[in-house]
Amino acid sequence: MRPSLVDDLIHAYLSGNAPTRASVSERCGVSRASAGKVAKALVESKIMCEKTFSMNGDAPSAHLFVDDDVNVMIIDLSTPRFSLTLFDPNAQVKFQATYSYDTSVLFDDNLNIFLSRCGLKAKQSEHPYSAIAVIYADDIRHTYLENAEAKSILPSIHNEEKIDRLVFSVFHKHVTKHLTVSMAICESLKFNASSSILDKAGVSYIFLGSRLFSFHVYQNGSITVCSPQNILSDNEKELIIKSRSISKDELDTLFIRLAIFMDSAFCPAVMLLESDNLLPDDDTAQKLYRAFALKGITPPIIQYKSSDKPLYILGAIKSSLFAIAKKYIIT
Q: What b/e readout covers 289-308, taking b as 16+ CB neighbours within 10 angstroms?
């Protein structure tokens, strides 16, 4: 089998919702035998397991799931509040520890304190994990509206060699994936079996909540990170900072402002909205469609993330699982 076909089949098994050999062979346009070879390898590697049951009244068949013991450790360095979290394959938290950046301590000392303290707690939790992913801010100038002193010295993905050495010194494992927030979100979109929005002519993403963040991903996968705070008034920035006091209507109004800005800059086929405060919904989408219509602009397709699991976390987990599978399954 071609290495690219093996990658496609692994990706399909990790993307699907309880996929079967038949569903993966159909999705990838290959024979049942080829899909079965990769399924067998995933199960024998103990990356995935099989459960036989019937769906929608069909005859019982074997469905594949990521094995419950294949957990992923996410080390999130993208905010001044560092976190170390163990996730199961379904993005459920098994263990979490956090550390707030201390600006009175040197940069390297902050990282050492965080990893040693939280790493010890992770070891004491005795949860197994198969991969480690580290998340970095894309561009710290474009992300936060407060805590400027701490954000100015956050590590970037260009520090990945140093971070890998520190992680290895604590956990005796190398980092599986180094990802910026936007890279992790793109990975999430690639693994979303229900949508192929990255196949369209570009996707613009807006996050409003604990951070203010937007970027555009082109059809070829390249990313442009934006500075949405530059078009907001001081009062609007203050609303975002004091997120607990913001109303749903106010949040939707800000989404409209930023969506029109992103559309004028990139003309995306899809606009993707996300928040960790008041979740966008169908009403938010309808307001955006009306706002575009009033301006005489053809709107993009409006999609939103409505669950409590951040897209960048989902993307980091899936991307790490894929990297682990590729280590074991070769042509």
A: eebbeeeeeebbebbbbeee
